[in-house]
Amino acid sequence: MNALISPSILSADLTQLGADLRACEAAGADAIHIDVMDGRFVPNITFGPDIVAACKRVTSLPLDVHLMIVEPEKHLKTFADAGADFLTVHYETCPHIHRTLQTIRELGVKPGLTFNPGTPLEPLNLLADMVDLVLIMSVNPGFGGQKFIPQSLEKIRQARAILDLHGSKAIVQVDGGIAPQTIRENYEAGARNFVAGTAVFKHPEGIAGGVRALRQALA
Ligand code: DX5
Ligand code: ZN
Q1: What's the predicted TM-score (pTM) here?
Q2: Which of 3, 27, 124, 134 is 20 to 30 A (C-alpha) from 102?
Q3: What is the pLDDT of residues 132-156, one digit of tens each?
Q4: CA 96 to centroid of ligand 1, rounded, Å
Q5: pLDDT tens for residues 194-214?
Q6: Which atom of ligand 1 sits closest to the CA of residue 137?
Q7: Active site residue 175
Q8: Whole-angstrom Cα distance, residue 158 to residue 213?
């Protein structure tokens, strides 16, 4: 199955993060999604580079770091040094997005670019060859457990079309409200990387049950 599942530790039990990460790995997750929030770009405040470094020590899964912070360019090296494999920045926070993506690449990290639900994708035409990942936000960022915004499906189709037009092999990732009920339509629209917090960590049968339910919905 060419669908990658990235549990978001925003919904993990932080009193036992190491155990949760090992459970994700055992459940066959493909990457770990780490939501960095600054209380400015988004209302919530979460993790910094020390958490990324701590995750690096307990899992060999790629670390996919989603930067929901203003002036992300000030912190790219710190997160790269902490062990990020992907660094995803928001189009809305980057007036010099071309340079920011270039810097991420120069740091030896895979660049990701994300767009909020209300942000058009047109600039992706100028940036398609600079990214390894395009994240379509399917909720307004800041919190887990929100409802999937259906218009995201059309944006996923658009993102895939723009990337294909420019010959880019970048993956389309979707984040927010991904659950067994929504994952399939996102796959059909062209997403291949699924971030899931609630659906993995709050599943009644635990982390393995959560990952299994998402895979089953795609089968
Ligand atoms: C939202 C974050 C997401 C969040 C998704 O701002 O970017 O990664 O963890 O949570 P769920 O899967 O619960 O919608
Ligand atoms: Zn995220």
Answers
A1: 0.98
A2: 3
A3: 999 999 999 999 999 999 999 999 9
A4: 26
A5: 999 999 999 999 999 999 999
A6: 7
A7: yes
A8: 27
